[in-house]
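Please predict the structure of the following assembly.
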Amino acid sequence: MTLITQAPVLDALEARFPGSLEVVPAVDQPTVKAPKEMLLALMDFAKQSLGMSLLVDVTAVDWFPARPRFELVYHLLNPDTMERVRVKSWCHLNEEMPSVMGIWPGADWPERETYDLFGVVFSGRGEVHRIYMPEDWEGHPLRKDYPVAGPRVD
Amino acid sequence: MAQGVKTDDLFETGLHSSLSRESMVLNLGPQHPATHGVLRVRLTLDGETVLHAEPVIGYLHTGFEKTAETHTYQQANTLTDRMDYLSPLTNNLAYVLAVEKLMGIEVPKRAQYIRVLFSELSRLGSHLVWLGTHVMDLGAMSVLFYCLRERELILDLIEQTAGVRMNPSYFRVGGLAYDLPEGFHENCQRFLDGFPKWMQSYKNLVQGNPLIEDRLKGVGRLSKEDALALSATGPILRASGVPMDLRKSDPYCFYDEFEFDVPVRTGGDSFDRFWVRMEEMEQSVRIMNQALAKIDPVGAYTTTDRKVSLPPREEIYGNMEALIHQFKLVSGGFNVPKGEVYQGVEGPKGEMGFYIVSDGGARPYRWRARTPSFYNLQTMPTMTRGGLVADVIVAIGTIDIVLGDVDK
């Protein structure tokens, strides 16, 4: 199976942010990993200069007990050329991620979902509310240390 | 009203003095027939004008993503049916294509054509339910009866093939669950031949009908920029002027071998979305006619890669190793190489995508469904701002949500 390690999108990103991105080989689309400090600059560049005007998805992966614990995954798409890129970043438990809502307002709900199910808090936007679970719910269900079955009721 | 009293005075003195002119908050749903399930919309109103419509979701949250982490890859397929239950097979398709891509499995061409055929059947069924319910929301009752009548024929075809009407899980990693049944080609062709006539009858009911046109034209307008910024996909994006259809622009399952058009409109209002979907139904039939002609009556329907596909029945009955292999595959599943993959397909409602992270085991480490209704519903506040309460009902219908898909 061939892994994608080279693409025009990756070249453009490398040229703009030399030495600070890590290209992750993937089977489906170009993938880069960037520290969260430069996430907003990278996303803004992707939208303005690379035409990635559609934010396809925002989600997270919990790598408990590894550190940093959460990996944030953004899927971007250029609707004119159909080029895709996956941007990954990471944060520790109780750390905040910068919100990309200022770049794509459509990040609103998926960020709320990520907060609700993983407990990753996003900064730079209004208060993040839960979206699926009730407001008074305790815990974040998609975390790996959250039980699959419910608590025992005796 | 008392003689000689101006309306404005009523707020200051007398009968209405307790009324304030502040905006009013009204809950629409979650139990309301026009919300197509358990959607609740928190409306902030100034009289009849909508200042803000905020969808409140989660009433049907099922935790599919969490559940899938405890299932084998083949078992998790059954969860995808239950998200957008009106179009289960396009959900299946996105999922199995994602896993196949990660594993590098080649699926026989005949199976891919059958997948195309059933995806389009699903799309047609989903659009028929949309048409019927949307028009019923607008006040025309009879269209729904005809739409459901034809959808029943689609469900019959699915039942013949997969054994069940809803949630068929017919596509499996590696191919299909079963081969086509005897007489399928004739039955399907009869349906396809009949459809243009039925389509014409829906058009006769809605085309030029003031009930439909006046309620849709200019209502729920969504600009191209807003649609893109809010991550809308599918018919909503295409009605706002972005010609993005993954079947055409990012083909999978040999869609590039089929001749069809992608209906695009530029107005971005409910009327345009209505006709984009109507035209899509005709294109679906076009694709299905070509697919049916391409499908050989006999041939491979699943990969021969024994890593994922079950041994044939006759082998299981006569060969101990085959029996053990079948048992292991069914009970333990197969391992998927470490890595991650995203695959999107054009569902009837938009881009249905799966992002799967494997740690090399037999169960997904992370199983993420990018469901189109969830993202599309985000456009509702923009669509309805400044409109009337009645337009909110139109917006719900025109976004074409399935709450199982929104809440997953």
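Residues 54 and 79 of chain A are 7 Å apart (CA to CA). The two ends of chain A are 52 Å apart (CA to CA).
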